[in-house]
Design brief:
162 residues, alpha/beta, 7 strands, 4 helices, seven-stranded mixed beta sheet, globular
């Protein structure tokens, strides 16, 4: 079975909030999400039965905007290990154990380290850098407990769709 991971960095957020965890998307961030939705809705390229997000407001709002705009009915699950400076090892293990596709909304530098860990097996350095409102699609074949390595399918940001 072909499996996809969609690693999403949150869109632009307000800088003024009571705490980092409560920073909402800015009007610019909402426009960035709208661009992604319009681009991916046409071809139904993003389909997933699971959506994970960090729990920080801006990541949750980005995941909600994509889910709603792309008609993804999967519930949003808050997962530990997706905050900006969390160690990505546990999340990588959880993603590697999945037998279905998943969209993951998070933050830098965590997403860069997570992508490196999934693709290369270690996070010694960031191989992929995520601009705000960008999506990296990884894929692999998985049959039972056996799976091919993750491969990069594409990496696009809202800027590709201006």
């Amino acid at each position: 079975m072909l499996q996809h991971l969609y690693l999403v960095r949150h869109a632009h957020a307000e800088s003024d909030a009571p705490s980092d965890a409560l920073r909402p998307l800015s009007p610019k961030g909402h426009r960035q999400c709208d661009r992604l939705v319009k681009a991916f809705f046409r071809n139904q390229q993003i389909q997933t039965p699971a959506i994970w997000q960090s729990g920080l407001l801006r990541a949750r709002q980005t995941a909600e905007a994509l889910a709603q705009g792309l008609d993804i009915t999967a519930p949003l699950e808050q997962r530990d290990g997706l905050a900006p400076y969390d160690n990505p090892s546990d999340i990588a293990d959880q993603l590697n154990a999945l037998d279905h596709s998943c969209l993951v909304a998070g933050h830098e530098p965590n997403l860069s380290l997570l992508a490196s860990l999934l693709i290369a097996g270690h996070d010694n350095f960031q191989r992929i850098v995520f601009p705000k409102a960008s999506i990296l699609c990884l894929s692999r074949m998985k049959v039972g407990p056996q799976a091919t390595p993750w491969q990069i399918e594409w990496h696009l940001s809202h800027k590709h769709f201006k």
